[in-house]
Amino acid sequence: MRKNNYIFGGFAATTAITLATVGTPVQAEEVTATVETATTVAEVPVTAATVQSALEVAEQAQASVDAQQIVVEAAKGSLETAEQATSQAKEQLTKAEEKVAQATPENIQNAEDAVENAKTNQVTKETAVETSQDAVKEAQDAVNNQAKVVESAKKVISKEQADVDAAQQNVDEAQSILDSTDVQTVYNVQTKAQEIVEKDKANVETAQEQLEKAQESDKKRQEAIEEAQKVADKSAQTLSDKSTKLTEVTTDFNKVNADLVTKQLAFEKAENDYNGLQHFVVTPDYVQALKDYVNNPYSYSSERDQFDKWYEDAKTRLKAANQANVEANLKYSINLNDDNTTEYDVNNLPKDLQTELSHYASYLLNQIRTIFGTPLTTVTSSSVDFVDKSTDKSVSKNWDSWTSLDHDDESIWSTAVEYGLTDKNYRVGNYHENWHGVHFYDRDYDSNGFVLVTGPEKVTKQTLKRAVHHAVIGFMFNGYEWLHARSISGLTDKSTKYVSGQGSVEKYDDVVYLGIDFTKVNGNAGVHFITVGTHHLTSDSTFDTELIENPYNIEKITKLYQDALKIRDEAQGQVDQEKLRLDSAQKEYDTALENDKDAKDALSEAQSVPVQTPAAQLERDRVQSILDASLKNLDQANADVLALEKDVKVKQSNLNKAKAELTTQQSELKSAKEVLTKEEEELIRLEGLRDKAQENLTHAETGLEEAKKAVRSAEQELLDLQNAPEKLEEAKENYAKAQQQLKEAKETFDDASALLETLLTERDTKLSEYKELKAKFDLNQAKLKDLENQAKNKVIVTLPDGTVVAVPNTAPTAAEKPAVDVDAVNKLLIKVKM
């Protein structure tokens, strides 16, 4: 079979110059160049498989090098160990040879004599130690006995000191008793008592005069009190009347004020709901760009260029409008009525809270859908249960959308099957869920629509609603994909049906049922938006479509706020009117209270004048009793003077006896101290003798230990001399073994190193071959690409000998066609074959 030579991009691996069969005449040098290039095409091409095979060979060569390097390192370690062992064996051999040279009969005899001498010296040292031990024991016994004598002398001193202290105390007490007997004081008391009696008599006379004056003053005081009481009674009645009126007016004021407080609380709740309204904005340019993105008028298959151009233009406009929409919506409107204290388990939210969060999401989405003119969302019991069941399945299987980067299609589909929304026998993908990753922080986002992820999270109603708001912004305005945006905005909530006479017709759903839920798996949280359009419902569906009224109704919330404001203001007007009445009543009461106070002050002032008669009578009685006591004191002072003179004589005699006893006890204490000093000096002397004996014992024990060391050393020297020949033979044997092991280790290392060098050379060769093939392959690929580009405007022509060439696909005119010299062509083909 004849081989065809393809000179055509897409078939040849090298550059080809096409034969010019049309157009200008062919020059000889052109033909030659063309044929030579065509000849190289017949070479075996470098394929990707060839390059891959060369790479695998090079990698295997490198693996062999790596393995052999490990062997070389191990052999090097063994060689170093053998060298060290040989050096140590050589050192031991040298020492053994030196010891054999020393092991003469004369040296051995000397060593034996040294052992005997050392043992004799050890026996002498042991005797010295025993003698020293006896001396230490004897000296310690003497010290112990003398210590007992000293302790006995101290006890005698203690007894004598106690006797001296007792005698001194007796002297002090006797002296104190005598000193306490103040003779002059007794006489002074007698004189003073006489003077007091005279003074007290004068005081009694003065007190009688004051009593008579007080009785006259008290009569005038009573008359003033009776007059002030009349005025006070009248002002008290007036105050009572004004107080009653003030109480009535205050009750009326408190009633309307309490009503104001109730209405103020209702207003604040309505105001918080009103201030918490989230007014979602989508700019017209963004709306139009997203609609164009979804509704491409061109066919993807038949009008691909126009389709791509339209698609890219829509994306460009979406990106351009994105930031303005982010900044217009990223501010979260906090509703202060939302609890930010109670924390929840993300994976087990209460059903009522989940329902409210679904309503909140529906309220946000419906603002967007109203702008886009797409179906509105509503919340039903089934839409909430659908997402709850689906997310529970995902959590149970530990599905983490953060890391899987996908929806849990199986859980969504199986839940849809439960409601009869899809065929249980036909597994489909995700047609219901939009998912967004979230964090639970109670702070706003930055200008890019993100919140700084840092610090502890808190899952509360307020942070959950903020996460829903953030997710909607992320769906609509993330700036890099718009699949979620088209779904959230409702542009995909429609179905296509065939209508007779009209063909396929798209129809938006009447309503879309929404439910949301949160999950947190492996520390990663996300919010799930599940939607079910009316086109998903069938006659077999068990999906409940009865809506649950959405509390997030802008019109209702606004009206409630306006009504609450009006009611609050009307209540405030009633409070203001009652406040005027209250101020007037309070003023009248204050005036009556002030008048009452003045009257009471006047009465109190009259009553505050002290009653003088009782005090004056008491004073008269008091000074009389003092005088009676003074007379008794004077009688006692006279009797004390007589008894004093007899008592002083007895106390002086007792003091003299106590002083004589003290002198005797002090003398006995002095003698006992002298005895103690003598015995303590003896104890110090004996302790010195004991310490000296202990020092001698320590010295003797040191000498004994040195003698024992000398015996051991002499015995070891004798043993080394006696065993020197055997040790020398052992050292020679060890040295010979070490040398042999060193030789074997060096041979192993040399062989391993040589093999490594060979493997390195082979690896470098294989690597070079691979690089060369890779370079050729890359070059051929580039040329192949160029030829393919050229081939787009070429057609295949087969020459008479079977050679295939590419020529322009535009047919020349008859005038342009040159005459073909068949002989020249045949000659050219013969030259190619040569």
SSE topology:
Elements (H helix, E strand, L loop, with lengths): L5 E2 L20 H14 L6 H55 L2 H76 L2 H93 L8 H11 L9 H26 L21 H22 L4 E2 L2 H16 L4 H4 L4 H10 L14 E6 L22 H17 L5 H6 L5 E6 L3 E6 L3 E10 L2 E10 L20 H55 L4 H110 L1 H68 L2 E5 L5 E5 L13 H12 L1
Parallel strand pairs: 1-9, 2-6
Antiparallel strand pairs: 3-7, 4-5, 6-7, 8-9
In short:
With 834 residues, the protein is an alpha/beta fold. 71% of the residues lie in helices and 6% in strands.
Structural class: alpha/beta
Count of DSSP-assigned helices: 16
Oligomer: single chain
Look at the structure and give the mean pLDDT.
86
Number of strands: 9
- How are the strands ordered across the major sheet? 2-6-7-3
Instruction: Tell me the β content.
Output: 5-15%
Which residue ranges are poorly predicted, with pLDDT under 50 across at least 5 consecutive positions? Answer: 1-42
- Helix content percent band: over 70%
Intertermini distance: 19 Å
Order of helices and strands: EHHHHHHHEHHHEHHEEEEHHHEEH
Q: Any idea what the shape is? A: flat
Largest sheet: 4 strands, mixed
What Rg is obtained from the alpha carbons, in whole angstroms? 63 Å
Signal peptide: 1-28
Keywords: Coiled coil, Signal
Region (Disordered): 83-108, 211-242
InterPro entries: Surf_Exclu_SEC10/PgrA
Q: What this model shows, in words?
A:
This protein has helices spanning 28-41, 48-102, 105-180, 183-275, 284-294, 304-329, 351-372, 381-396, 401-404, 409-418, 461-477, 483-488, 554-608, 613-722, 724-791, 822-833; strands spanning 6-7, 377-378, 433-438, 494-499, 503-508, 512-521, 524-533, 794-798, 804-808. The protein is α/β, with parallel strands linked by helices. A four-stranded mixed beta sheet has the order 2-6-7-3, sandwiched between helices. The two termini are 19 Å apart. Residues 211-233 have a biased composition (Basic and acidic residues).
